[in-house]
Amino acid sequence: MNTPQAKSTPVVTAPLPPDQISPKEVLARATKLKDVARRNWYVLLVVVVIGGIIGYVTDLTSKKKPTYIARIVFNLGGGSGSNGQMGDLGALASAFGLGQATPDASIFSGENFTLYVRSKPVVETTLMKTVKINGVDTLLVNYYMAHSGIRDKEWEEDETLKKFMFAGPKKREDFTPTEQQAMYDIYERLSGEMEIKPVDRKSSFLSLVATTEDGPLSKAFVENHLVTIEEDYKKKQTKKTREMLTLLENRVDSLSGRLTGTENKLASYMNQNQQVVVAEGRLQESRLTRNSTFLQQQYFAAVTSLDNMKLSLIREQPLFTTIEPVILPLYRKVPAKAGMQAGLAIGLVLGLVAIFLRESFRSPKPTV
């Protein structure tokens, strides 16, 4: 008797969602990548080696020179105007957003001071100074052109500027077209080589930094630029007081002349009319005496005001205190040679792209 066998139910596997892959597929793809690497490893190696060689040669032929950093730390303060305006700029923390909430209209406070230090007229004044470098007096702008590298880079193809030199110090309005172009290029390059910034958030000390390809140039620039800032600051900050001082000096001179003339007239009149007893004669003597006394009072008052104005001018002048001068030897910054690393990285990317393209156009093997 045959016993009927039970029918087996087939196992139905649920398909995976489209955003997932099974471990079996992962192994299959890994095997394919292994085969791709076995077929193309030499392509990747050759491209990476070529990229590394090109980067190494680029490093060897690089024209980048080491730079020298000169830094001077100073404090600005001590000036106090007689008109009640803020003259003490020692608290320059407000210049960088650490003090007053409202901006100050003064040139020498807030971000204005930073822009002022880097402004073209102030920088040009510094460059037009005759300075002593390595024991030789030279125009700073000419030394800059000779040692900053601008002739080998910005002026590499300009034969006129490569041989150009300033004949001597002069004002901007007296520049020739060639001098204007040279100064413009120098200022554009120098703007990226100098920096003015606070030493610390809680301090009013400022640092002036210059980074050039020549050590004596960096040192000479920061030292002379600070002198230029101090001179120009005093000139602008005390402008009104100096104008009033000039007026008072002219007034004192005028009163002195008139007083001398009146006193001479009075002395001459008294010598000529010693025995006069008539009223008209005495009246004239009284007038001259009165005028002389009045002019004396005005003269003494003007002299007192002049002395007070001179003292006020001294009080208004700021005090630039050098906290940390330029320290020798200067810090020497050697440019990093990253050409070889960049060449290896680019070679790796290009090698992977070459393998991808090679595999994409590779003819599949015919199936039997």
Keyword list:
alpha+beta, 11% strand, 7 strands, protein tyrosine kinase activity, 10 helices, 3 domains, elongated, 368 residues
Structure write-up:
- The protein has 368 residues and is an alpha+beta fold.
- It has 3 domains: 62 residues, no CATH class; 187 residues; 76 residues.
- Helix content is 54%, strand content 11%.
- It has 10 helices and 7 strands.
- The strands form 2 sheets. Strands 1, 4, 5, 6 and 7 form a 5-stranded antiparallel sheet that branches.
- Strand 4 and strand 5 form a beta hairpin.
- Helix 1 packs across helix 10 and helix 3 packs across helix 7.
- The protein is elongated.
- The two termini are 49 Å apart.
Q: How can the largest sheet be summarized?
A: 5 strands, antiparallel
Count the domains: 3
Unreliable residue runs: 81-104
Count of DSSP-assigned helices: 10
Report how far apart the termini are.
49 Å
Number of strands: 7
Instruction: Work out the strand percent.
Output: 5-15%
Mean pLDDT: 75
